[in-house]
Amino acid sequence: MSELVYVQALGLALEPASRRRTDVERHQDGCDFKAAYGQVGERGGRTLSYSSIGLEAGVDILLWRMAPSLDVLEESVAALLRSGLGRWLSVSHSLVGRIGPSQYVRKPTDQEQSPFAGERSRYLIVYPFTKSTDWYLLAKEARQGVMNEHMHIGHDYPTVRQALAYSFGLDGQDFVVAYETDDLVAFGDLVRALRATESRRSTVNDTPILLGIHRPIDEILGLLGAV
Q: Which of 32, 42, 108, 163 is most exposed by smallest CB count within 10 Å?
């Protein structure tokens, strides 16, 4: 398999009308969608499923995806959206980025890992992130000093792991930021601490924040009544 360098956070919304279909129709929709989901890896990518039912407006299923090319991301989601329950799903959010080495981190720690390495945590938090023009016009040494403070605080919360993807020229934001954790209280404390750092001055946008609970796809289909 080619190196997986492109990531996508894909939020899917289920049309309310699908819930009024018969039990038999919903069951068949779920089976067809699950079959298509099982074939996603055959296209050369990898997809992890998260549930956001009732947690995020307009997001019932949150897919965290990685592939060697944008073509693979597009083709695999096209197959999902034309299969069973997929015909009742619409894309409410899509954040695309490219994985690459950070210019501020010389030696990544376990917290700054590949988006798909190791065991998955219970919760995924993903959001777009954009810096100001003034930030990019700062000298590299000045930006490094600000980021050192930012990273130092992050290391005080070892139960929270972070992944960063670059979106320049690919999407509307500068970065796609993803956090994994089993401890949402610690994550909330981390966010509050980071917002009191110098780096916050250069933040233009870091919303919407998408929160998902890691569940197998058949478990999510069960919650949606498509089993």
A: 42
Give the C-alpha distances (Å, rounded to integers) separating 19 from 22, 23, 56, 85, 102. 8, 9, 18, 11, 44
Tell which residue, 72, 75, 65, 118, has the closest CA to residue 95.
65
DSSP 159: T
96: CB partners within 8 A, 6+ apart: 6, 7, 8, 70, 73, 167, 170, 171, 176
Do 165 and 209 meet the contact criterion of CB atoms below 8 Å apart? no
d(CA 40, CA 86): 13
Give 93's Cβ-side CA count (13 Å radius): 25
Q: Residues 33-84: pLDDT tens digits?
A: 999 999 887 777 889 999 999 999 999 999 999 999 999 999 999 999 999 9
For residues 215 and 49, the answer to whether their CB atoms sit within 8 Å is: yes
